[in-house]
């Protein structure tokens, strides 16, 4: 039996242990550890309070109205129109809902289908490092080569080094996948950083792919700038987002990708044979939500942003008080913290001991890096924590973290 192919995928995704066995992901290991020890789980990034009741009612109403068979392959027209209108309203983009929008099973499927459609053996796919874990797996499934540009910590947050960015692009660069607001660091890339990436992509005739699932979750008045709005990125950008994070319904898995019709058609060709379609009734609920920004849904998202900013502050203050060095995130569900000042050089080791030491679970940032990379080495002592948990939970985490110092 030939089984090498999935081993390539597992290797590409960093899921193979040195012995060649498929390693449990650190995410699963840490969730198990939290369950076993009763520690506060600040590892996995999902809200512990659901999104608004009126959207649950809308999903139930869609089921009762009989929207229970396969929706159209590109997604229901109402949702494609709502996505196009959303992009116009927020960013001034003109999007044709008929040919330039594809609804997907969350952002995850949009990312996988895009990479599988547009990159293959001999092609290079560039991402920022650290990166969301599905990127490496999808690039490996496509048989393409993964190259990265490091996001480096400095006194004013994480930034891309322009020389690193220039050096990462080659004649083989087919795709550059840019995630902002950025998981795990919470960085919102600046217009200057995005412009450089767009210009470098244009110079190599590479397609730009964006992951903007946290587009509405930015703090302190910082604004998210979609790459598709920059002149150098025009005509070569696929924009990916999803309802999961903005509406606190991560299980609904309604995502979308929009961009030039020929690129969207290529992605659809692959998507057709991954899931074909997904989340039928939820597409109706999300279409209603995106069209309700002046109503209860808009109010909900504004309230979520304010409350997440407060919860960010609570967790950042607890981590600082415990002796970590943090970088205050301008967006997302996450903050990263350096444990080196506390005397811990290896975050993997620290995360295994954190339940006992502080009653808390986090994820080592190296889990978002290529095994043994320079970036992984540089961020060896950093841990990612989520603050998308109730305040009472974050207070309990704060009490535990305070023990680290004592
Ligand atoms: C959560 C997340 C996703 C996945 O989005 P879904 O819509 O749930 O598939 C993609 N990218 C990043 C950076 C995320 O944090």
From TrEMBL:
Keywords: Aminotransferase, Pyridoxal phosphate, Transferase
Any one GO MF annotation of this record: transaminase activity
Domain of life: Bacteria
SUPFAM superfamilies, alphabetized: PLP-dependent transferases
Ranges where the Aminotransferase class I/classII large domain occurs: 40-399
Needed co-factor(s): pyridoxal 5'-phosphate
Enzyme type, top EC level: transferase
Protein name per its UniProtKB record: Pyridoxal phosphate-dependent aminotransferase
Top-level taxonomy: Bacteria, Bacillati, Actinomycetota, Actinomycetes, Micrococcales
InterPro entries reported in the protein's UniProt record: Aminotransferase_I/II_large (IPR004839), Kynurenine-oxoglutarate_AT (IPR051326), PyrdxlP-dep_Trfase (IPR015424), PyrdxlP-dep_Trfase_major (IPR015421), PyrdxlP-dep_Trfase_small (IPR015422)
EC number of the protein: 2.6.1.-
């Amino acid at each position: 039996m030939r089984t090498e192919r999935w081993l390539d995928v597992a290797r590409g995704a960093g899921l193979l242990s040195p012995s060649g066995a498929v390693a449990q992901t650190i995410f699963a290991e840490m969730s198990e550890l939290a369950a076993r020890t009763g520690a506060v789980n600040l590892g996995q990034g999902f809200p512990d309070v659901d999104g608004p009741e009126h959207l649950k009612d809308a999903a139930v109403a869609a089921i009762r109205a009989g929207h229970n068979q396969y929706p159209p392959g590109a997604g229901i027209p109402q949702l494609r129109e709502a996505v196009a209108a959303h992009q116009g309203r927020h960013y001034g983009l003109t999007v044709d809902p008929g040919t330039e929008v594809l609804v997907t099973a969350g952002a995850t499927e949009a990312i996988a289908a895009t990479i599988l459609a547009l990159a293959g053996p001999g092609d290079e796919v560039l991402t920022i490092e650290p990166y969301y874990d599905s990127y490496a797996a999808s690039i490996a499934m496509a048989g393409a080569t993964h190259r990265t540009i490091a996001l480096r910590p400095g006194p004013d947050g994480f930034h891309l080094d322009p020389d690193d960015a220039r050096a990462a692009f080659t004649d083989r660069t087919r795709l550059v996948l840019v995630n902002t607001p950025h998981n795990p660091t919470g960085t919102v890339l600046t217009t200057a950083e995005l412009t450089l990436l767009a210009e470098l992509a244009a110079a190599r005739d590479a397609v730009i792919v964006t992951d903007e699932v946290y587009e509405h979750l930015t703090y302190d008045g910082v604004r998210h700038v979609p790459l598709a709005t920059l002149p150098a990125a025009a005509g070569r950008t696929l924009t990916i987002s999803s309802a999961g994070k903005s509406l606190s319904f991560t299980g609904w898995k309604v995502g979308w990708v929009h961009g030039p019709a020929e690129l969207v058609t290529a992605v659809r060709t692959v998507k057709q044979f991954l899931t074909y379609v997904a989340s039928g009734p939820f597409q109706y609920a999300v279409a209603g939500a995106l069209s309700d920004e002046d109503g209860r849904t808009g109010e909900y998202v504004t309230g979520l942003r304010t409350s997440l900013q407060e919860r960010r502050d609570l967790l950042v203050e607890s981590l600082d008080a415990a002796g970590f060095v943090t970088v205050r995130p301008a967006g997302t569900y996450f903050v990263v913290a350096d444990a080196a000042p506390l005397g811990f050089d290896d975050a993997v080791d620290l995360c295994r001991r954190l339940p006992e030491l502080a009653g808390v679970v986090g994820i080592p940032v190296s889990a978002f890096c290529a095994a043994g990379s320079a970036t992984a080495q540089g961020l060896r002592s950093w841990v990612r924590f989520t603050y998308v948990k109730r305040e009472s939970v974050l207070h309990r985490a704060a009490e535990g973290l305070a023990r680290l110092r004592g």
